[in-house]
């Protein structure tokens, strides 16, 4: 309500400032000194004729006086011609009133149209106090502050915590990257390998891509009974149409599942569904360990989508060029779809990682303008202050 009144007052004041020159009283222009002098000279010429008639001046004296007065008249006329400004077109009173009316009517309409096109009229108000009670806003704020801390003092525990926060924010790609940094920093717990691999699965829309399979396999190398790794490797087999392999892996997990485990019923349903899809009796399947993720051996260098990385991409300079091209491609995409909040967050973070702070600031400003009131972007901005 207060914001609306403030906008109304600002609109009225703007319209008043624009229309005031059109409606203001315009006094008649003053007579210039040169014109006044010309009138005096003409009166003096008439007075000379009167003096001759009264016998006060002789013809010779009158002629000299006339010559002097006319000389002064010529000088005044020349001065007036040099100082004269080009004649200005005067708008009629009616035209000025019409122009003022158009400004008063069209200015608010234009403002409303621009706001409807570029603003977010349907977005509800969310004062700062309300945002502080929004769990997503608090998570995003905590994640951004932890990201800043990691730039200065990275530790495996902090990377894992950062990954957990991004996971809760459903930023699965960045969450998986944080988990991978925690592992690279020394935390090689089987549960963390499985957590990272599951995040890769979620980032790929539920597909157990080769990269996730390799990560789950790494978890099983450290703990052969890791339940999440067994489940997802069975799911990978099912997604590839190997239903018997999937059932064999899931039955192994079923045998190792404690009584009352929360995933027991879900696992039983998965086994039954796979058996129906493969048209076989699950009782005839022997529990087995999952196969290695790749028949060709380890998936060494992989792309973000799990495909084997080409030889040219193993070169650091070539990878840098590829990363820059990907970031620029994301920037171009966001100019077409400015409502993609997750895309803006990835772009800002990418620029920061590349050390391009000016571009990061500009991207964040654009993102906030296109998505006003977004909790994740507000946190991204607030943590930098």
Descriptive key words:
mainly alpha, Serine Threonine Protein Phosphatase 5, Tetratricopeptide repeat, rod-shaped
Summarize the structure.
69% of the residues lie in helices and 0% in strands. It has helices at 2-23, 33-53, 59-83, 93-118, 128-131, 135-152, 156-168, 172-184, 190-203, 210-222, 227-239, 243-256, 264-278, 316-336, 341-353, 357-370, 375-382. The chain is rod-shaped.
Task: Explain this structure.
This protein is an all-alpha fold. The chain has 3 domains: 2-118, no CATH class; 131-284, Alpha Horseshoe (Serine Threonine Protein Phosphatase 5, Tetratricopeptide repeat); 311-382, Serine Threonine Protein Phosphatase 5, Tetratricopeptide repeat, CATH 1.25.40. Helix content is 69%, strand content 0%. Helix 2 packs antiparallel against helix 3 and helix 12 (243-256) runs antiparallel to helix 13 (264-278). 23% of the residues are buried.
Q: How do the SSEs run, as a string of H and E?
A: HHHHHHHHHHHHHHHHH
Beta-strand portion reads under 5%
| Average pLDDT, all residues | 77
Counting helices, strands and paired strands, the structural category is: mainly alpha
CATH class of the largest domain, named Mainly Alpha
Rg = 42 Å
User: Which fold name corresponds to the CATH topology of the largest domain?
Assistant: Serine Threonine Protein Phosphatase 5, Tetratricopeptide repeat
- Strand tally is 0
Shape: rod-shaped
